[in-house]
Specification:
Blueprint: E1 2-5, E2 17-22, E3 26-32, E4 39-41, E5 67-75, H1 84-88, H2 97-106, E6 109-119, E7 122-123, H3 129-138, E8 146-147, E9 152-153, H4 156-165, E10 170-175, E11 185-193, E12 196-207, E13 216-225, E14 228-235, H5 241-253, E15 271-283, E16 296-300
Parallel strand pairs: 1-11, 6-8
Antiparallel strand pairs: 2-9, 2-10, 3-4, 3-5, 5-6, 6-7, 10-11, 12-13, 12-15, 13-14, 15-16
């Protein structure tokens, strides 16, 4: 079952919804047949059991009770927040047990569980969320590499504000009476992603293709770090057709043969510009090396001079 992007339920309906932290990891369904084995499958149906050897002991966590559980595999950073960048080093190793074991020692993962679809040979799919949640909590699944985080009922605005204040990805709102709909992107589950915005300097661009031929397909954004302009990512969405044409003219006027970024990013086909255009971009999180994740363009900032734009990249990301 998948969540639909949206916003908080109206205040009058708040008490009819539960709120869970949105995690930045890999969705996984855990199959426990009760015979001492476990199988983990990704959303695609791919068997990913071999990639996460530290989760294999989950096989015996319920003894001989068979169950099918829904959750998310996370890799946590030094601050205890889920980091998809860290997790990427663990993904794709399902058929390389030696490498998977070595990576597990360096970057351990944790499975957070939030639903149960089958238990003791019985389908729970048609039970309401609140009943499934009770059944899941009764299992007491809290172990060395797995846990069952709490959900709260009501208080949606406070829950969303807490995720933002703690630098978490966002919130998932789940209607208390909702059944489990496998494979369905349902309005009974709503996901809200916390997005941040910052000013950036445009230091280059990539030509568009097809209907965007002659126009920028993406701009290359930078921010200051230690007196240098550091590349923080390519931004390829967020413009109207008119805005993209306006930007194309500004980029052509600022063209230069000299890359303004230090170090020069490995971006094949890049066209460089004098970094005098200031833009505001929206993004979800930063990677450990300061790159913006899922950036999209908000607007040009002609009201800002280049020297006024954007605070430095955080020191711990340089």
């Amino acid at each position: 079952m998948l969540a639909t992007p949206g916003s908080l339920p109206p205040p009058a309906a708040d008490a009819r919804w539960a709120y869970e932290t949105k995690q930045d990891g890999q969705r996984a369904v855990a199959y426990l047949p009760g015979d001492g084995t476990v199988a983990l499958r990704a959303r695609s149906g791919q068997d990913i059991t071999g990639a996460y050897p530290e989760l294999h002991p989950l096989a015996t966590a319920l003894g001989t009770r068979p169950a099918v559980l829904d959750g998310e595999v996370l890799a946590l950073d030094a601050d205890g927040r889920a980091s998809f960048q860290l997790l990427q080093s663990r993904m794709g190793l399902a058929h390389a047990p030696g490498r998977a074991a070595r990576r597990a020692a360096a970057v351990p993962v944790r499975l957070v569980l939030f639903d149960v679809m089958h238990l003791d040979g019985r389908s729970l799919l048609r039970l309401p969320y609140v009943r499934r949640r009770e059944a899941l909590l009764d299992l007491g699944l809290d172990g060395p590499s797995w846990s069952t985080p709490s959900a709260i009922v009501g208080h949606g605005p406070q829950a969303l504000r807490a995720t933002l204040e703690h630098g978490l990805e966002g919130l998932v709102c789940k209607r208390l009476d909702s059944v489990y709909e496998p494979g369905v992107r349902s309005r009974a589950w709503i996901k809200i992603r916390n997005m941040r915005s910052e000013d950036v300097l445009v230091g280059g661009w990539l030509p568009g293709k097809g209907r965007l031929s002659g126009l920028p397909g993406a701009v290359l954004a930078g921010q200051r770090a230690g007196g240098r302009l550091r590349y923080v990512g390519g931004v390829g969405t967020g413009w109207s057709e008119a805005e993209r044409a306006e930007l194309a003219a500004l980029l052509r006027a600022a063209a230069t043969d000299v890359c303004p970024f230090d170090p020069v990013p490995a971006v094949p086909g890049a066209r460089w510009v004098v970094p005098r255009l200031v833009g505001e971009v929206r993004y979800s999180t930063r990677t450990r090396d300061g790159m913006l994740r899922q950036p999209s363009w908000l607007r040009l900032r002609p009201d800002l001079a280049p020297e006024e734009a954007a605070a430095d990249i955080p020191d711990d990301m340089v």
